[in-house]
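TICKET: design request
STATUS: open
ATTACHED STRUCTURE:
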């Protein structure tokens, strides 16, 4: 009969064997591909020594308990902390059947997802797997469905973050797609069907990278929010994002001492805008100067670059920034920019993060590609997102706020709380040249010197409409401010709005124009 000590030794041996996942050789292969193991990744993601594993004794589907030959399932799950705040984690193990999803593996994931919901704590999933485990058939598909359901029920209750560190193919893409943020490294790819299937069905020849690599999804599809080279840097950036987020939708975002003076004026804000309104500038320059210590975490940096969204802090508290970017296509609103900003606004609203909107937008982008692509519905998403958001909303019109884009970008009419403008603001139905051509068509046709006449009409139009004072005279703008005071004015407004309470009318849910 085995002694207690022997039983304890056996437990340790089983644990050590299971920790090897698919075994040393496959770990070597994983390292050879420049990838870390599931456990190494968790060590980088979580505070040192904080990882508490769940179900470490679950065996690979189809294997029986044999102390000499136990093999683990293809996911490591558990709980840990990031800067002392809790999160639930799963980390797929590619060394075990290519990280493919079995029912047992799904059950492990579901267990921590349910605990995360009950405890109001975020879930971070590290993905590196070949999709549904083919040998398991419908059981694997059922597990995906079970995970998708949890993703949806958790949406808006706890933040969910997906990190793609290897393949995510087939069903494996839809759980990340249902979460709030997707990180990808250069060694990762995501697609519903791989290059071979694409070639068979459409005849297109495309590489894994071109079809579903990080930069493809970061720049073209918008599926990827953060494309980062190297697993270590990527997991570090996940920790940074986490530091901005509340643990759940009942919490305020975390407070972090930044040491930046809330009353800080900024002389440089007077010099960023060119005198010529037709010339671009980098809206990020303004953002960096407004947030605490210049610390701005840009989301979707490479996608729809005519719009900037991201997190910063003011007086140590997280805020969401949405800004037009005149550096790209004059900051015009198009399909992708509308989708990008609408999604971000809805995330902030779900998680009690005030929204600061910086406006310099010449309008919605005209053209057949936009109209055929559905700019009407996609542009409406932005209007919808701002209108339904009940968090504090502060909007600063920096320069142009033209046409429908004036309404869409956090206007007073969509329930913004504080609307300010710089003296450089131009708020009008359309740009001066287009407007003059329409409203003075007859006079221009009769004019002897058409250019001179047009110039005079433009000067007149600008004086009448392209300024902040008409809007301010109606109360649509609460005040026109000295640009140097922008940060203290926003911070004072945030303090004034700290006890804000607003809601949507009772309903099951609205019908966001998807
Ligand atoms: C079972 C799998 C597997 C899978 C990989 N493996 N994917 N086993 N089911 N889905 C196994 C391989 O057989 C191999 O086992 C080991 O994992 C490592 O895989 P390799 O192919 O050697 O690795 P690599 O060359 O790096 O290629 C990785 C890969 C490739 C690109 C992910 O394995 C692949 O294409 N897998 C299938 C991907 C796929 O089509 N998934 C969709 C499934 S359908 P051995 O023992 O030989 O080393 C789906 C629908 C769900 O997901 C829908 C839900 C809504």
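STATUS: resolved
RESOLUTION: sequence designed for all positions
ATTACHED SEQUENCE:
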């Amino acid at each position: 009969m085995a002694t207690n000590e022997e039983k304890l030794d056996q437990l340790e041996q089983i644990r050590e064997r299971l920790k090897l996942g698919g075994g040393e050789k496959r770990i070597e292969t994983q390292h050879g591909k420049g990838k870390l193991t599931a456990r190494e990744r968790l060590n980088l993601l979580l505070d040192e020594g904080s990882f508490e594993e769940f179900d470490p004794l679950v065996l690979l589907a189809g294997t029986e308990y044999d102390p000499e030959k136990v093999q683990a399932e293809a996911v490591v799950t558990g709980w840990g902390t990031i800067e002392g705040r809790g999160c639930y984690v799963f980390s797929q193990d590619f060394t075990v059947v290519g990280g493919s999803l079995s029912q047992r593996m799904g059950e492990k994931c579901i267990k921590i997802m349910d605990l995360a919901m009950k405890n109001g704590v975020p879930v971070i999933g590290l993905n590196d797997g070949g999709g549904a485990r083919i040998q398991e058939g419908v059981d694997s598909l059922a597990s995906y469905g079970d995970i998708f359901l949890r993703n949806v029920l958790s949406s808006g209750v706890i933040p969910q973050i997906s990190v793609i560190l290897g393949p995510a193919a087939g069903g494996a893409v839809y759980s990340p797609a249902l979460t709030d943020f997707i990180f990808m490294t250069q060694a990762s790819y995501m697609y519903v069907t791989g290059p071979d299937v694409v070639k068979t069905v459409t005849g297109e020849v495309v590489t894994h990278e071109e079809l579903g690599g990080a930069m493809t999804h970061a720049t073209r599809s918008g599926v990827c929010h953060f494309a980062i080279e190297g697993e270590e840097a990527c997991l570090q950036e996940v920790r940074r994002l986490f530091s901005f987020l509340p643990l759940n939708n009942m919490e305020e975002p975390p407070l972090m001492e930044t040491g930046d003076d809330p009353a800080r004026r900024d002389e440089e804000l007077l010099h960023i805008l060119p005198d010529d309104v037709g010339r671009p500038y980098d809206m990020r320059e303004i953002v960096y100067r407004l947030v605490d210590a210049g610390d701005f975490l840009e989301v979707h940096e490479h996608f729809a670059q005519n719009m900037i969204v991201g997190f910063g802090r003011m007086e140590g508290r997280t805020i969401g920034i949405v800004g037009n970017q005149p550096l790209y296509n004059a900051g015009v609103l198009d399909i992708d920019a509308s989708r990008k900003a609408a999604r971000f606004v809805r995330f902030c609203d779900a998680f009690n993060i005030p929204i600061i909107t910086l406006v310099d937008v010449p309008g919605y982008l005209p053209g057949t590609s936009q109209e055929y692509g559905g700019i009407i519905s996609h542009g409406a998403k932005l209007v919808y997102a701002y209108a339904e958001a009940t968090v504090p909303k502060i909007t600063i019109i920096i320069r142009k706020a033209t046409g429908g884009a004036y309404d869409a970008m956090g206007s007073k009419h969509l329930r913004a709380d504080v609307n300010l403008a710089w003296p450089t603001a131009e708020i009008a139905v359309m740009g001066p040249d287009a407007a003059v051509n329409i409203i003075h068509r007859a006079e221009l046709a009769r004019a002897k010197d058409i250019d001179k006449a047009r110039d005079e009409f433009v000067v007149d139009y600008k004086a009448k409409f392209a300024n902040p004072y008409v809007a301010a005279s109606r109360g649509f703008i609460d005040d026109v401010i000295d640009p140097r005071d922008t940060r203290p004015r926003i911070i004072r407004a945030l303090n004034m709005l700290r006890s804000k309470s607003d809601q949507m009318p009772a309903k099951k849910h609205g019908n966001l124009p998807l």
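CLOSING REMARK: The chain has three domains: 4-244, 267-430+467-496, 432-465. The pocket of hexanoyl-coenzyme A is lined by residues 97-98, 100, 130-134, 141, 144, 167, 169-172, 174, 194 (CB under 6 Å).
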